[in-house]
Amino acid sequence: MSQADAESQQVSTGCRPGCGACCIAPSISSSIPGMPEGKPAGMRCVQLDEHNLCRLFGDPRRPAVCEQFSYDPALCGNHREEALSAIIELEQLT
Ligand code: SF4
Ligand code: SF4
């Protein structure tokens, strides 16, 4: 998928293109291509590209948990740093 397609798809879910906070802050226990043990909290997912877009967008190998993580104004805040801290906080509570 082209960069523009990936961006427009992420926009249609309300997600800020180029944010990627939910691909960095939370831990992901399911296996991700390139990260078979999943991802620890605070670590950048290997599938997050240099534009902070998911390389697996629309790919069946994308973990189901990533599909479920959708835009939530309370969590995503107004910019990336707000999202990062909100997600880290949530992670510490759960
Ligand atoms: S934290 Fe929110 S805005 Fe940022 S990538 Fe995730 S869903 Fe999108
Ligand atoms: S697989 Fe894609 S959506 Fe899931 S954490 Fe990695 S970059 Fe984000």
UniProtKB/TrEMBL annotation:
InterPro entries: Puta_zinc/iron-chelating_dom, UPF0153_domain. It comes from Vreelandella rituensis. The lineage of its organism: Bacteria, Pseudomonadati, Pseudomonadota, Gammaproteobacteria, Oceanospirillales. This is YkgJ family cysteine cluster protein. Pfam families: CxxCxxCC.
